[in-house]
Amino acid sequence: MATGRPAFRTLVSPGDPAAIEQLVRDTGFFSTEEIAIARELADDGLANGPASHYRFVIAGQDGALLGYACFGPVPGTESGWDLYWIAVRQDAQGQHLGRALLEVTESAVQAAGGTRLYAETSSRAQYEPTRAFYLRRGYTVAARLPEFYGPGDDKLVYSKLIG
Amino acid sequence: MATGRPAFRTLVSPGDPAAIEQLVRDTGFFSTEEIAIARELADDGLANGPASHYRFVIAGQDGALLGYACFGPVPGTESGWDLYWIAVRQDAQGQHLGRALLEVTESAVQAAGGTRLYAETSSRAQYEPTRAFYLRRGYTVAARLPEFYGPGDDKLVYSKLIG
């Protein structure tokens, strides 16, 4: 079968929320509560399109969803943006798709007037690849909140100046 | 006219959202966007009652709203809670009403199984009384995010262990 290269789009299509929920669940990384939130944000993006608080970059190939990023402006700030989600389907990892999603996201944030992008993650061992990913992409630890998620589970806030 | 002592309640009454919006506006501290958010959370509390994500402590006296606090559990954490709002009507300040609201809030968080309460504020000079208030009440600076709100305007995250 013919396979193309991943294509990136920013509009959420009708099939995306279910595919996003499946992708997030299949990573095995996220709780039921987190999976529900990922689905809810995608539903909001589909329902409200460009008027949604939530912006998306979606990587698709041959009709399948390979990965996505979800982000939005931080309310009450002049130009801060939050990266809410970035996830790549397990069988599509190792192709620098995460890097590409983050680069497209940063360009979109910059185009929207954003100057700073935040990404939060956990100090647990499971998230070591995530933390290494942000550091490689030029993010630094802006804050660390001890035991934020639970005992022995700190929150790390990574940030990067954009533009 | 007879005046009683302030009474505290946790259920949002039909007149509260408009009174909360007015109170928050009258402080002169908050942006139009922030005032809208305060109103939205109060509307949610009224519409959903105890099922709302947002919990309230409301101080009233002789049918008037003197101050309130709004708080809720931090999604994705075991027992972290956020203090979203705490505000006292200007003509009711100096009576330790803020302290009382915070104490009732902390008791409610503890009763709900919360172990940590977070309060965010700005590094701007205008918020010096707010910062001093949290420090007096046993909060410490858990994190500082440089220029989070805008140039020269850091975010300070205060936290206190509850119970």
Question: How would you describe what is shown here?
Answer:
The structure is a homodimer of 163-residue chains. Helix content of chain A is 32%, strand content 34%. The mean pLDDT of chain A is 94. The relative contact order of chain A is 0.14. The first copy, chain A, has 163 residues and is of the alpha+beta class. The interface between A and B is medium-sized, with 24 and 24 residues.
CATH architectural group of chain A:
3-Layer(aba) Sandwich
Number of domains of chain A: 1
Count of alpha and pi helical runs of chain A: 4
Please give the oligomerization state of what you see: homodimer
Name the chain pair whose interface involves the most residues: A-B, 24 and 24 residues
Kindly provide the radius of gyration of chain A, computed on alpha-carbon positions and rounded to a whole number of angstroms: 15 Å
Strand order of the largest sheet of chain A: 1-2-3-4-5-7-6
Distance between the termini of chain A: 40 Å
For the residues shown, what is the average pLDDT of chain A? 94
How many runs of DSSP E, i.e. beta strands of chain A? 7
CATH topology of chain A: Aminopeptidase
